[in-house]
């Protein structure tokens, strides 16, 4: 700006002054650019400099200000321009124009029409305003020269504003100088700290947090937001932003689980910003990976599987339980990352609104993350939850088994009674009287079964109604529940006198429900999943070929239709016969090839080749492929099945069926008929005290062949003891995997 002003390059000077970091008061050899403009009598350059905030009060190397220089050289147009455009309070009484007159006196005598500012009553206020102007125009040097002149106390708002400007401009000396000048006085640094975070200035932020450490809680979300913003002009501010974040997290009682109006946590922003270092910082501080924002997106949606896997490994630690015995240790599982946010204190009559299985449900549905379910940290958590509610599942299975047996016995007895009644009508005239007593015995047995079936059905209906009111949404979105509703409806129709056709459907539906209950056991879920997957893929694969099968059925009807033929008498039965022929039941000896000898043989051979051989083998190959794929993922399939089961039970246990009922009081809106399950199925805070649990195996760390359950080896200090928790069992396979991970970590550490 000095060269541009000296050469009179107005356009160049204007372009330079538009830069946000430019300092119009920059001094070179004791002169500012405004001094040069006055010396050159360049009103245009002087106007540009004054409009940008140039000060006319700064003395040059000879002690002359720009205004003093203009006055002594009789540049009255320049003097008028400075008086009108200068943003600072002009120093008219401190400097002399000639030997015995001040600048004010000379200007008033020579140009009385100029409106000069009055003599200030409080010079400290003027100085404070000048300090603000110096910061605004990036003049840190003159700010530091003048701040030492302050003597009186000022309102904290003014100090906070100076700090904020210094932080926005990145003036380290100015910010530290302000803090030292006003040390011990009451003012807030939150606005300045916010500006420092936005500028990624960790030096100023560190100085501010020393003054007010509690400001860190208000900065954590802003610091994470900055991680995802691109740097200006291609600059990479990530290291500086990470340093700011580390400074914030170093302070005590920083809440890493806070959220903004959209429900986003710091971990959300760190993950969406793609900063894996920040993600690791928050995970190590106990951030919850499953917190859903308003758009139902958890933080793990943007966290790589590799980062999560490494962190899960770090959540498994080996703790030595006794110093005098090196081979006695415990494996600690740290579940802090799975602990939902707790926005209210623990109470016995209210249940957590946030469900613990939502994060598992998301992982199971994410193709790039679902393999992490096999990690010991996640699989052990699922095992503990299942172990807590297994008795409820066993009781439910026993109840339905009784209902299934009674219902099928009733249907079979009803079918048997119908046969006896028909036989009675035929033999009524020839049969002797003992048959009547037999009928009475059968009728009494049937009546007892009917009564027992009715009682079990009422209990079944009661169970479904309670489930429905506990969690309406989950109930209506479950296909299994609609199957149960259909079963109840048809059973009622059967008890009201429906025919054997309804009984046959009820037998099938009740058996399918029993299969679903059996599949809830993780060891049996793989087989059921294979059956379901193969059935679905069969139907999906067969759909494009339905028209071809229909075409062959109509062709058979056309070629083989004969008055004496009973194989293909009409299109409907022809289609039915063709579908049966898919399985290889051709019965070719009974097919009449006489009417159209050549064409009937050709069509039949085409059917055998394309449908019976090609299509049927394609379907078999598809089934083998699906089966092999599911078997290769048997462990994962079992875990996903367990997640679905526990998620549904958790929804029922923590639901509030009367939450939307305006006519109910507050206690009733929180009431849940299945609320007793909440303390059993929820791990936090009812069971785990600090999100950790310690399991104490009895063998060495490098042994993996222990196949027994680890029972009663939970360290008592890691859990909350209550009447509902007496012993703990842990799957031996999970312990083996955990020990293997810890062993590999130790080996890697030794190698490093």
UniProtKB/TrEMBL annotation:
Stored InterPro entries: Ankyrin_rpt, Ankyrin_rpt-contain_sf, Ion_trans_dom, TRP_cation_channel
ANK repeat coordinates: 29-61, 262-294
Membrane topology (UniProt): Multi-pass membrane protein
Membrane spanning stretches: 393-413, 455-476, 488-517, 538-560, 598-619
Keywords assigned by UniProt, alphabetized: ANK repeat, Ion channel, Ion transport, Membrane, Repeat, Sensory transduction, Transmembrane, Transmembrane helix, Transport
Major subcellular location class: membrane
Example of a GO cellular component annotation carried by this entry: cation channel complex
Pfam family, one: Ank_2
Residue span(s) of domain Ion transport: 397-633
Localization, UniProt: Membrane
A GO term, aspect molecular function: monoatomic ion channel activity
Xref: PANTHER family: TRANSIENT RECEPTOR POTENTIAL CATION CHANNEL PROTEIN PAINLESS (PTHR47143:SF4)
Name of this chain's protein: Transient receptor potential cation channel protein painless-like
Gene from which the chain derives: LOC112459653
């Amino acid at each position: 700006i000095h060269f541009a002003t000296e050469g009179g390059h107005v356009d160049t000077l204007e372009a330079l002054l538009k830069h946000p970091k430019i300092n119009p008061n920059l001094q070179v050899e004791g002169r500012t650019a405004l001094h040069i403009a006055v010396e050159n009598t360049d009103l245009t350059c002087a106007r540009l400099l004054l409009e940008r905030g140039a000060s006319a009060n700064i003395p040059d190397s000879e002690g002359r200000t720009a205004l003093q220089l203009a006055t002594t050289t009789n540049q009255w147009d320049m003097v008028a321009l400075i008086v009108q455009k200068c943003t600072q309070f002009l120093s008219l009484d401190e400097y002399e124009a000639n030997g015995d007159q001040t600048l004010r006196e000379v200007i008033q005598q020579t140009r009385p029409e100029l409106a000069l500012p009055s003599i200030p009553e409080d010079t400290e206020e003027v100085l404070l305003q000048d300090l603000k102007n110096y910061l605004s125009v990036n003049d840190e040097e003159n700010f530091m020269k003048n701040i030492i002149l302050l003597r009186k106390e000022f309102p904290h708002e003014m100090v906070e504003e100076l700090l904020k400007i210094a932080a926005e401009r990145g003036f380290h000396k100015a910010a530290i100088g302000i803090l030292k000048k006003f040390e011990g006085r009451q003012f807030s640094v939150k606005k300045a700290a916010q500006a420092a975070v936005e500028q990624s200035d960790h030096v100023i932020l560190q100085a501010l947090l020393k003054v007010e450490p509690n400001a860190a809680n208000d900065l954590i979300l802003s610091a994470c937001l900055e991680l995802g913003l691109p740097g200006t002009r291609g600059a990479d501010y990530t290291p500086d932003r990470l340093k700011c974040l580390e400074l914030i997290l170093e302070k005590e009682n920083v809440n890493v689980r806070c959220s903004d109006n959209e429900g986003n946590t710091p971990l959300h922003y760190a993950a969406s910003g793609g900063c894996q270092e920040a993600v690791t910082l928050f995970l190590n501080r106990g951030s919850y990976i499953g917190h859903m924002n308003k758009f139902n997106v958890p933080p793990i949606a943007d966290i790589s599987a590799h980062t999560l896997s490494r962190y899960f490994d770090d959540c498994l630690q080996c703790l030595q339980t006794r110093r005098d015995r090196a081979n006695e240790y415990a494996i600690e599982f740290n579940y802090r990352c799975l602990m939902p946010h707790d926005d209210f204190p623990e109470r016995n009559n209210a249940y957590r609104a946030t469900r613990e299985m939502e994060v598992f449900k998301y992982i199971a549905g994410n193709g790039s993350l679902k393999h992490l379910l096999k990690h010991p940290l996640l699989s052990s958590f699922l095992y503990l939850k299942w172990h807590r509610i297994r008795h409820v599942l066993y009781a439910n299975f026993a109840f339905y088994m009784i209902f299934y047996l009674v219902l099928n016995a009733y249907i079979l007895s009803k079918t048997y009674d119908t046969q006896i009644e028909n036989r009675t009508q035929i033999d009524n005239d020839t049969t002797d009287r003992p048959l009547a007593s037999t009928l009475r015995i059968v009728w009494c047995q049937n009546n007892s079964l009917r009564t027992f079936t009715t009682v079990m059905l009422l209990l079944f209906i009661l169970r479904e109604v309670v489930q429905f009111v506990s969690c309406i949404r989950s109930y209506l979105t479950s296909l299994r529940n609609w199957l149960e509703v259909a079963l109840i409806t048809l059973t009622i129709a059967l008890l009201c006198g429906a025919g054997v056709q309804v009984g046959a459907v009820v037998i099938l539906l009740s058996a399918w429900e029993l299969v679903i209950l059996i599949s809830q056991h993780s060891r049996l879920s793989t087989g059921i999943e294979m059956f379901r997957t193969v059935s679905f893929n069969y139907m999906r694969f067969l759909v494009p070929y339905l028209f071809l099968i229909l075409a062959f059925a109509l062709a058979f009807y056309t070629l083989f239709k004969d008055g004496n033929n009973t194989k293909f008498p009409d299109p409907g039965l022809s289609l039915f016969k063709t579908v049966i022929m898919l399985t290889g039941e051709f019965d070719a000896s009974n097919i009449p090839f006489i009417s159209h000898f050549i064409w009937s043989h050709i069509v039949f051979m085409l059917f055998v080749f394309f449908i019976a051989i090609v299509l049927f083998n394609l379907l078999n190959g598809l089934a083998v492929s699906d089966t092999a794929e599911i078997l290769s993922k048997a462990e994962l399939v079992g875990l996903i099945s367990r997640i679905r089961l526990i998620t549904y039970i958790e929804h029922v246990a923590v639901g509030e069926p009367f939450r939307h009922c305006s006519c109910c009081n507050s206690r009733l809106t929180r009431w849940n008929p299945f609320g007793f399950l909440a303390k059993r199925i929820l791990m936090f805070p009812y069971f785990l005290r600090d999100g950790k649990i310690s399991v104490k195996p009895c063998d060495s760390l490098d042994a993996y062949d222990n196949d027994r359950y680890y029972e009663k080896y939970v360290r008592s200090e890691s859990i909350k003891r209550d009447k509902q928790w007496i012993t703990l069992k842990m799957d031996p396979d999970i312990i083996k995997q955990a020990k293997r991970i810890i062993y590999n970590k130790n080996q890697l550490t030794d190698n490093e």
